[in-house]
Amino acid sequence: MPNPAHRIPLSVLELAPRSRGMSPADALAESTKLAQEVDRLGYHRLWVAEHHGSEAFMASATSLLLGHIAEHTGRIRLGSGGVMLPNHSPLMVAEYYGTLATLYGDRFDLGLGRAPGTDPMTAAALQRGSGQLDTFARDVLDLVGYLGDPDGERKVRALPGEGTKVPLWMLGSSTGGAQVAALLGLPFSFASHFAPQQMTEAIALYRERFQADADTAQVDRPTVMAGVNVLVAPTTEEAEFLFSTARLMAARIRTGQPAPLDPPVEDLGSVLPQGVLELTSGLHSFRAVGTPEEVVDRLEAIVAEHDLDELIITTYTYDPELRRRSFRLLADAWGLPESSA
Asked: Which parts of the sequence belong to the Luciferase-like domain (predicted)?
């Protein structure tokens, strides 16, 4: 087993999940509690993912939520995982995240994605652009310019924002995002927690085409983070039981039945048709669920197979305290430097 000192960093992907019976305010309060916990435990980053029109996720206004979390944490890096750039003008994104960097210093990352983060009707109400690769790449270039040093020629400026150089990451669930990340020399975060199908192909393409000498390059070598569904409990049986909430969530998303998170169930087959049950298994195939030792073994295998630089963990439980417990157990088992679990 690798020495804990040599393990890669663990980060957290947060969507401010809401369980049945919770108000939106309850969900956001629990999200803040989790941020404080993972800050204390030594996780490297906490990213908030932009979602709109969701009964289950209260993370529509990521920059506002990140500002609130920044006020209640002190060490952990914060950022978007990501901002769905087709929904926003690059100037506005630069102003929002430049303001956060101005207020709180070098604690922020700006992860960028092409998906709308919602259903087609809500996307139509939000969208400013198409998300096509060429348009998306131009938007990223504009964003780099707004956040960079003043050049004396730019007529439109992000103030505050200019000169903050908030680090950019490219997000993706296919080869499209990998191409843009490679072309621009950006670190790449793959959404394997919900779309693992093209992971191997996308990472290989990214590494093969990476341009360290691009004007926009922010890392000197290909740098890859991957998302993993994780749930840690004292026993395998309890972990699998609690993970049924995530599988029910996946079933609702795929069958167009939005709702807050459901309580866990002993037998998923008793509440889901066979076809839907198989679908949820595939959606969450990239997972580490079990005891602390089992989860560490699975995560280490994923890291070794894909030669990853960082893992970003997403965890859903009906009871928010059991979600925090999962992160405590993992922090202790992984050997995070500030863990007191």
From this structure: 20-303
* Bridge partner residues of 226 (DSSP): 190, 311
Q: Give the distance, in angstroms, between the CA of residue 77 and the centroid of all CA atoms in the same chain.
A: 13
Find, among 143, 162, 144, 150, the residue nearest to 98 by Cα.
162
Residue whose structure tokens are 């209260």: 58
Beta bridge mates, 168? 110
Q: Is residue 75 classed as helix, strand or coil in its secondary structure? A: coil
Instruction: Give the position of tokens 């298994």.
Output: 281
Return the closest-CA partner of residue 70 out of 112, 113, 105.
105
pTM for the whole structure: 0.92
In the CATH scheme, what architecture does the domain 4-229+310-334 have?
Alpha-Beta Barrel (3.20)
Q: Which two structure tokens, joined as six digits, stand for 75?
A: 């060490």
Helix (H) or strand (E) holding 182: helix 175-184
- CA 183 from centroid of its chain's CA atoms: 22
Domain boundaries, given as residue ranges, for the chain: 4-229+310-334
pLDDT digits (tens, 9 = 90+) for 81-131: 989 988 899 999 999 999 999 999 999 999 999 876 566 777 677 666 555
The whole-angstrom distance between residue 329's C-alpha and the CA centroid of its chain comes to 20
Closest CA relative to residue 268, chosen from 281, 287, 253, 256: 281
Query: How crowded is the C-beta side of 168, counted as CA atoms within 13 Å?
Result: 28
- CA 217 centroid distance within chain: 21
